[in-house]
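Researcher: Here's the sequence for the chain we discussed earlier.
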Amino acid sequence: PAGMIVLHDRVAAEMSGLGEALRALGVNRVVVATGDHEESEARRIAELIGADAFHYNCKPEDKADLVRQFQSTGRVAMVGDGVNDAPALAAATVGIAMGAANDVTGEAAGAVVMDSSLERVDDLLHIGRRMRRVALQSALGGMAASFVGMGFAAAGLLPPAAGALGSACGFGSESPFRFRPQPAFLPPAEP
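Model: Thanks. This is the structure I predict for it:
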């Protein structure tokens, strides 16, 4: 042969240490599943992000099978950026489509991150965790206010309707206003 051209995906520097960041959020295992045919490329990406394992030469159905296999041991989040990831995104407990996702990928995923930066996935996970905490506080606070209101009504200190109304307007109703996104969660400015 007169020459050879070798192409490989450019993996952004932001991906370095991604596995460690995900583990800090409670992710037990980070696995790379790629359609790349070369083991060396899959290994390079896995080492860069700090993945626990990698699979290469994966067809869409192979990725979906991997997701189902991992679901036998717990919940699975799948991050994908193309149509070939759609079956695995749909099979995952949480599917996250990256970048300018097409209709198929967007429909298959539970969440779509319009920016192709993995920092946005980290933001999404932090926001989700915080929203869950706020929702839990709201539910528990609302129940506590209901019990207090019912207790006062049962003791004859409040009419029953006032006890019910007081609990509906109590702690739980203000919780949605407690979540205010920090500037770090905003999408990047257009260049």
